[in-house]
Design brief:
It is a single chain. The protein is of the alpha+beta class and 455 residues long. It folds into three domains: 4-103, Rossmann fold, CATH 3.40.50; 132-201, Dna Ligase, domain 1; 207-454, ATP-grasp fold, B domain (D-amino Acid Aminotransferase, Chain A, domain 1, 2-Layer Sandwich). It is built from 16 helices and 22 strands. The strands form six sheets. The protein has an eight-stranded antiparallel sheet, sandwiched between helices. It has a five-stranded parallel sheet with strand order 3-2-1-4-5, with helices on both faces. Strand 2, helix 2 (40-44) and strand 3 (47-52) form a beta-alpha-beta unit. The longest helix is centred in the middle third of the chain and has 17 residues, at 249-265. It starts with a strand and ends with a helix.
């Protein structure tokens, strides 16, 4: 087992990793930017070293600085968390050169799954259902038009190096294709330094369902059931839950089997997530694979009663996966992401000093956060402040518990998405469980928040 792990991340995920390491008697090293000097991950790690200025490229993306700290502190492993360098094959290779274990998949796995075109080709060969579309990258508007007419509109253009909804454009007819193609390429080039795009059939009324998977160094693989991530705004997840209210047992078995097939096809090592789009008729299609721990991993932990960070560390240390894991069907969990954003102002970021804080408590309520009263939310990073995860014996109980917990959650000094989540818990379509990724297009949450505040 590792003696010391450097955590190449910040915020709540860095704290989350530190907690598991402490329970496993593993020493931790925190790295931080000058903007995060007063962050809790710095306080609770056994050692902490500043690696650069506030901007990500000067600190959390500075591979050489991170490796220098790993060598200086004699760390024998690096945990990348999510975001930043978590899916960077070059960084994983650099760790290998320094004889430091990267807690995650191999560089080859990251490259195979990181590029969406190669990932799709791999899944087709493995027999995993994929969305109809271009066989490779689109080289011209004429080529895009030809394929769109073959598979039928609507279609969606996607950046091959994309993520977070950037470089995506939905097109419903020939007339809109040229403009969408140019915009998608421009946005992809600006965001990822790679303007290559591909084209797929756009699935109407889709559900975004992901399967949590794990594979070890001995070729064994398993899945830990599904999470429903269909509550999204501009392809960014806001709420996740497990099990999905849309997925029945036959579909769960089919998707789980497909996810394991995907993991075994590439001999994947570590934990990861196979993401699917599921249409209204319960046909499912591979979308992408995330080769890291997910923001929403606590949802699975709560329904499975299982520490996924610990499993990551054990797999990286050469331990076989913990048997065949499955959804036991006894609990339901929902996670709400609390961001420093103003839902009444198009979710505009709201950095600043937190003047007062009270986190909800009680049976079945978990809050993963790095904030405290007096903490200043920096403007340089993702706006995630906290994740609130509620667990109960039924979905209905879980929603009621989440509503209560959200009302108890007080953050003053910055705008947050707490009011949005409160009104979402009251939304009839959400409560029914019969919703898809277009839910927020139909829900006038601005009026609902204003009405809530008028009472």
């Amino acid at each position: 087992m590792f003696k010391k792990i450097l955590i190449a991340n910040r915020g709540e995920i860095a704290l989350r990793i530190i907690r598991t390491c402490k329970e496993m008697a593993i020493q931790t090293v925190a790295v931080y930017s000058t903007a995060d000097r007063d962050s809790l991950h710095v306080r609770f790690a056994d050692e902490a070293i500043c690696i650069g200025g506030p901007r990500s490229k000067d600190s959390y993306l500075n591979m050489q600085a991170i490796m220098a700290v790993a060598e200086l502190t004699n760390a024998d492993a690096v945990h990348p968390g999510y975001g930043f360098l978590a899916e960077n094959a070059e960084f994983a290779e650099l760790c290998g050169k320094y004889n430091i274990k990267f807690i995650g998949p191999t560089p080859a796995h990251m490259r195979a799954m990181g590029d969406k075109i190669s990932a799709k080709e791999t899944m087709i060969k493995a027999g995993v259902p994929c969305i109809p579309g271009s066989e490779g990258l689109i080289g011209s508007v004429a080529e895009a038009k030809k394929i769109a007419n073959q598979i039928g509109y609507p279609v969606i253009l996607k950046a091959t190096a994309g993520g977070g909804g950037k470089g995506m454009r939905i097109v419903r007819n020939d007339a809109g294709l040229e403009n969408a193609y140019n915009m998608a390429r421009n946005e992809a080039g600006a965001s990822f330094g790679n303007d290559a795009v591909y084209l797929e059939k756009f699935i109407e009324e889709p559900h975004h369902i992901e399967i949590q998977v794990a594979g070890d160094q001995y070729g064994e693989a398993t899945h830990l059931s599904e999470r429903d991530c269909s509550v999204q705004r501009r392809h960014q997840k806001l709420v996740e839950e497990a099990p999905s209210p849309f997925v029945d047992e036959p579909l769960r078995k089919k998707m789980g089997a497909a996810a394991i097939k995907a993991v075994k096809a590439i001999k994947y090592e570590g934990v990861g997530t196979v993401e699917f789009l599921v249409d209204k008729d319960k046909n499912f299609y591979f979308m992408e694979m995330n080769t890291r721990i997910q923001v929403e991993h606590p949802v699975t932990e709560e329904v499975m009663d299982f520490d996924l960070i610990k499993e990551q560390i054990l797999i990286a240390a050469g331990t076989p996966i913990s048997g065949v894991l499955y959804y036991p069907g006894r609990m339901h969990a929902i996670e709400c992401r609390i961001n420093a954003e103003d839902p009444l102002n198009n979710f505009a970021p709201s950095p600043g000093k937190i003047t007062a804080l009270h986190t909800p408590k009680g049976y079945g309520v978990r809050v993963d956060t790095h904030i405290y009263a007096g903490y200043t939310v920096p403007p340089y990073y993702d706006s995630l402040l906290a994740k609130i995860i509620c667990r109960a014996k039924s979905r209905e109980e879980c929603i009621v518990k989440m509503h209560r917990a959200l009302e108890e959650f007080i953050i003053e000094g910055v705008k947050t998405t707490i009011p949005f989540h409160i009104v979402l818990m009251d939304n009839e379509e959400f409560r029914s469980g019969k919703f898809d990724t277009g839910l927020l297009d139909r829900f006038d949450y601005v009026s609902a928040i204003k009405e809530l505040r008028s009472h």
